[in-house]
Amino acid sequence: MVTVLANTLVVCLIWVLESERLLRHTSTKLVLYDRIELIVPQRRQELIADLENRIGLKVENLEIGHVDFLRDAAFIKVFYTLDKDQTGSIDTLTQAKDFVELGAGYTFISKKYSSDIWKPRHRLYGDMTFSYRTGNWHFSLKERLQLTHMDVNNRFQKVPNALELKSRVKASYKASTSFTPYAYVELRTRFNDPSCSATWNESTLSYSDYSFTGYNDTYFNRFRGAIGTEYKINRQHELDFFLLTDYCYEKNIDTNAEGTKLKSLTFERDLNIGIGISYIFKF
Fold first, then answer.
1. What mean pLDDT do residues 259-264 have?
2. Strand-pair partners of 208
3. Structural domain boundaries of the chain?
């Protein structure tokens, strides 16, 4: 019964997404345009009329991309609505590219500890971002899987290769050409923290029967949320004003170097709230 209900819900959802009665499906084309004198905001209606005359489609919206003044050309992203039962493979490919973004990278981190020793970390990560735009709204889900390597003095206390997943859900609204308010929440999951078993003795206030059970402890160890607004000064310069909440949950294991005795097992909770401003330069 549960399976039948789930399948019915999936079929209904697909019907809603594909139905033109409830949702209007907008397609896009990337056009290399030659009459760049029409791309200024004051002549937007003339630009739309010229595009509709050339490509034979009803233009719903458009975005001006790269402009080459030496060649008198500009890339324009044209949004239009297809007729019923009409599809276009080029448009489908463009929409898929806009919907999903993939990325990867490497980060070198050097952190100073209380012993005045700098310990380097090497981090590899891969990103997958799902985006959806409707009107002035932009919704996104970003998943980042990262592997961080560092030298550890005691492998029973810290994992040398930490595997984590960062999940961020973000919503933004383009209020004007300059301001874009936004809000997001982010969760970080740690997959392979050290785990152990031990017995706490109230009389001696110590642990006994300790054993290391591997790198298999999984838990949420960070929550971050923010609200703010991006302020676009021009095409290359932006400012970001935000209010940030950061909650960390860390497990601290203290054992001897041989991994035969558990000295302490504590959980550290840290909440920070702050305001900030950042500068973004695009090139």
1. 89
2. 199
3. 23-87, 97-281
